[in-house]
Amino acid sequence: MCGALLLVGGVLAGCSGEKTTKETSGEKEKTYKVGVTQIVEHPSLDAAFNGFKKALEEKGLKVEYDVQIAQGDMNNNQTIANNFVADGVDLIFANSTPSALGALNATKDIPIVFTSVTDPVGAKLVQSMEQPGGNVTGTTDTHPDAIPKTVQFIDQFVDGNRVGMIYNAGEQNSVAQVDAVKKAMEGTDLTIVPVSVSTSAEVKQAAESLVGKVDCFYVITDNTVVSALESVIQVANDQDIPLFVGELDSVKRGGFAAYGFDYYDIGYEAGVMAADILEGKKKPSELPVQYPQKLKLVINKKAAEEMGIAWRSEWDSMAEFIE
Question: Which of the 8 DSSP states describes residue 205?
Fold first, then answer.
């Protein structure tokens, strides 16, 4: 049953896998069918999808998108992917780690291009970053320096050493990031105070449980928590606790600071890869997994005021700012 789980906004959606053609200047122009699977809706993932679409548009490809959102339910990812395979889509765009894993479990033949995946090798999506193998490739949403630089900033500028981390232990990408944070803290006196959640509804209570136990929050790119980020922001503002986040869209929403990049850009890069695959120029196995190209520190000045953070003059030359 196509669309049973769907949430479709502003895109063409169809349940038939039949490829359509269009007469243009006497030539038949192919319309490609792309299945889009996304674990939840939040600004970063949505921006990545917008970048993906823009790349295909600029490549001149005609594309019909079937967009389905798993609503944060891990089991839905597999159903969505199975539907795409049954429909015979030309390519699956998987936006998040669980979405990509569902797609990979569903097909070894249809090309899969992912983005917003933190640890493609650790998640066993690809054999290596350089030689992904199989029918899958894409772009990762982690920059090798992002977590080390964030930890360094916390160590240098935050009073105290207890870092509260709320994450979904069921998300492989989140576990990988927490491990990376621990590794980056080696040699410092920083310690993690973790709380695991299973659904976005649990996030606010988790944040409240850390009040008095931590000196700052650090919300990584965990889809469950990011989709309910406003509840953490509220606690951070009310209790004057600095809130570090894992990507720039969360800074715009009210996080204090992040080393990050634009998710639109990694989605766009994934779209360029997808265009090459759809046009038959490359196979997924021939396209190495790509890292984000740009990393920058962004600080939200209004959020700093809300969280009672004293401004440091050193930051003036270190960061870009949201007023």
Answer: H
